[in-house]
Amino acid sequence: MINSFTLKSLTALLILALSCVVCFGQQTKKIYLSGKDYKHPVAWEFLCSDGNNSKQWTTINVPSNWELEGFGTYTYGRWYKELQQDQPSKEEGFYRHRFKVPELFENQQVRIVFGGVMTDAQVKINGELAGQVHQGGFYQFSYDISDLLVNDTENLLEVHVKKHSDNPSVNNAERKADWWLFGGIYRPVWLEIKPQSHIDHLALDAQMDGTINLHLETKNIPKNASVVADIFPVTAQKKEFSTQRSNLDDSNETLTFKWDDIDLWTPESPNLYLLRLQLKLGDKVLHQVEERFGFRTLEFIVKDGIYLNGTKIIFKGINRHSLWPESGRSTDKEISIMDVNLIKDMNMNAVRMHYPPDDHFLDVCDSLGLFVLDELAGWHGHYDLKTGAKLIKEMVDRDVNHPSVTIWDQGNEGGWIDELDSVFHQRDPQKRLVIHPWADYKGWDTHHYPTYLTGVHRFLNGENVFFPTEFMHGTYDNGHGAGLKDFWKRYSESPLFAGGFLWAFADGAVLRSDWSGPQKYDSKGSLAADGILGPHREKEGSFYTVKELWSPIEFDPLRITQKFTGDIFISNHYLFSTLNKTKMEYSVVQLPNTMLYQDENLLTIAEGSINLPSILPGEKRKLTLDLPDNFFKGDWLKIKATDPYGREINTWTWPIHTPSYYSQKLIKTTDNPTTKSRISEDEHTVELKAANIKVQIGKQDGLIKNVSNHLGTIPFNTGPIPVGFKATVDKVSISIQGNTAVCHVDYNGGIDHIKWTMYPDGRLKMHMVALKNAGRSSGFDGAFFQPDIDVFGITFSFPEQGVEGMKWLGSGPYRVWKNRIKGTNFGFWVKRYNNTITGESFENLIYPEFKGYHANLVAASLEANKNSFKVFSESEKVFLRLFTPEEPKNGFKGSKGYPDFPEGDISFLYEIPAMHSFKPVSQHGPNSQPTNIRIKSGDDGISMILWLDFRN
Where is each Glycoside hydrolase family 2 immunoglobulin-like beta-sandwich domain found (predicted)? Predict the structure, then answer.
């Protein structure tokens, strides 16, 4: 037994084994006929029957989808009426490739393996059929071509591919679906060479107690043969394990081995091992195979839950398509690594597929740690029994040994046949659960897009384990994080809740090789723009919302005041891990006083580590930070947590002071006691003047009519207009108070009064009091109640043209909705102007989006050349609205991008609308619902204090 390998030396041995058949002839040899991925293709001869670049022989990269290579016709599934397509494209592709096989492989078994072909594939070797036409575009298949090959001369491989299957059930399952339809040999093609006596297939069940049950299918096994098993740690601690031997008598054999002191696989500690099996006759090695695996035990208990290694699990997952914009469904391992890391970065532990993904994606899920729901394709339609059984066998045989594969899905949203469920267990010794996604089926309720109060005898009131395999639909900027907090909290109240899967991972936009002009990427409008990420994995705002909400570390609500002594409460929401191995650091950040007026760097005035005790999963503890002496000289506290693998869990921030503190600190003052502000009025306007600043306010409506400084007019005007309530001017009075000028506007209706104060250095202060006794002269009698307020505040006009960006202090950097504020952090942010339409601006996709609502405004500098100005808020929890995002232009029915925005361009609000998520807001939780306002006699009303600085 070899027991001292490092992983590096083991890898080197494997490479040597694959390259030196003479020395290691007993190992399976793999020879690629295509490239290994779309980045490293091999050119084959090709002819496309119809569409672009058709009807002539040329070459094509293999692997690839031919549409992305400039051939054929693009089709989106189900050929919707909105797409003005009655039928999908049905072109066919003809491939030719010549290759040699050395004499060395004579008298060995040679199979040709296709990782995936869309959709029907007829394969010929030297003019002879290799076997039956394969139907089904997402599955690995192979043929034994040993008797069709000619050694040491060129062999001709011909593949005839039909994009539209001759089998109607395949089209029902795969092509009448809500995804892109492609054609071609899009996954690698290779030869697999084995000795005549060999292990043909291996399915293993590695349990948490160290037992491995091996289900072998073998060929041409001589009498008295045996199997020798060794395991080598890949990611776990390096340990020595005994070699074990078992006699082999039958062609299909179940063998059992057991090792002690093994490390278990979980998504939080994905320990992997390499199993080496040697088929031996005496001391002679006839064949050797190696398989990577993890020890873990899955249990599926009806009316209870899903368990891994004895621990009940909660899926925090997302749905993912195998797709890259420039290559369609032809991807590579780098994309898989990137995608799994992004999923893990959102503190997710699970992913669901709509068809078997690339095998390298499952490899990465194994090594980085994700639960996988592996799915037989089918979107409302399903395969026939014979085809379905064949494809299940291919799917399970390829994926059965991945420890990440947790559940088998048969089809989706009706795309199943009950009779096929048993086929999974025929090929899977682990007998993993088979579900029907969206159905309440045999004790497993996977209902799609539940409302907050879904269910008579379902979910919180039901008796079945529930985990929606699709929820929080994310078209454009909708869904995902918007409303997730309420849904998750409510469903988590049930002991039968097993988690859920957001829809979906990335916008399904692809490069249109047949388009010219500025627009190059196509998501079929709103049909495929469902991602929490852009097509090239650009992060939308919900990415950070989910990251915070699903963080395994949670802080109790905290407000820092002068009485803060460092006490914080922290909860552990990991399934398996204690927190003592988590790295946690704090820093105290200080903002220079002149930060909004000139470019300066933030200052870290204190930092240190926080030692976390062994807080168990599900446990809450109080920690006390050792506050530095200068803590209250800082402006915000930042805490960052990192897991044992170096991955950021989350970063949290808390302001140390109130907005009034920051206003006094940050607004530039140049008062001269000998100067005074001035005020004048005529029949129509009041004019406030100081230090080259002039502000005119209308006496009839109370609106700013004109603002100017030494550079000219600043087009900030036509406000404050009430938003969410009404008010009319009652009277206007002016006065000089000390060296300030004051315009006092009294209102009837929702505003009680606004006091405008001009300071000698040109600063303008607005102090509004609203809903005091429900407004002056409003018929108020004892109490005032206003239901269903979804937006409340004031708004102004300002032109978008010429705006270059914004510097601001608040919670950012992403825009927010009422039900998607989590994921922002208090800090100083710089945003460049952009007109990004989330889920549609694929050519100029800039995040964070500039337009929309921004949380917890403290101070902002809107940069617009000579029209620039600054605003400071002394009031807490003010939302800054910056302009109105453009609605998506290409959406279909029901794909509205945003809730309605109030009039005006720049608004200061205490209430903003919630974002819908596939379901209307009325079917969301309480934090998505409009506000009710009740004012009683004697209330002070709602105050808002803003400073406006037009000095440029």
Answer: 198-296
The residue among 290, 354, 358, 278 whose CA lies nearest residue 318 is: 354
Topology of the domain comprising 676-776: Beta-galactosidase; Chain A, domain 5 (2.70.98)
DSSP states of 41-103 as a string? -EEEEEEESSSBT-SS-EEEEES--GGGGT-B--EEGGG-GGGT-SS----EEEEEEEEE--G
Q: What is the CATH number of domain 553-657?
A: 2.60.40.10
CB 436 within 8 A of CB 410: yes
Given the candidates 2.60.120.260, 3.80.30.20, 3.30.930.10, 2.30.30.220, the CATH classification of the domain at 33-194 is 2.60.120.260
The H or E element spanning position 122 is strand 120-125
Superfamily covering domain 197-293: Immunoglobulins (2.60.40.10)
Sort strands 315-320 and 350-353 into parallel, antiparallel or unpaired.
parallel
Give the single-character DSSP code of 675: -
The sign one gets for the Cα dihedral 310, 316, 321, 325 is negative
Answer yes or no: are the C-beta atoms of 904 and 704 closer than 8 Å.
Answer: no
For the record, the structure tokens of 462 come out as 């039901």
pLDDT over threshold 80, residue 243:
yes
pLDDT digits (tens, 9 = 90+) for 317-360: 999 999 999 999 999 999 999 999 999 999 999 999 999 999 99
Matching residue, tokens 């939080």 = 268
pTM: 0.95
Query: Using CA atoms, how far apart are residues 952 and 660, in angstroms rounded to an integer?
Result: 23
If you search the block for the tokens 């693998």, which residue do you land on? 645
What is the rounded distance in angstroms from the CA atom of residue 201 to the CA atom of residue 401? 11
Asked if 758 contacts 688 with a C-beta cutoff of 8 angstroms, the reply is yes
Radius of gyration of the chain (CA): 33
One-letter amino acid at 291 equals E
What percent of the chain is predicted at pLDDT more than 70?
A: 95
Q: Per-residue pLDDT tens for 259-313?
A: 999 999 999 999 999 999 999 999 999 999 999 999 999 999 999 999 999 999 9
Judge whether 411 and 378 are in contact, CB under 8 Å: yes
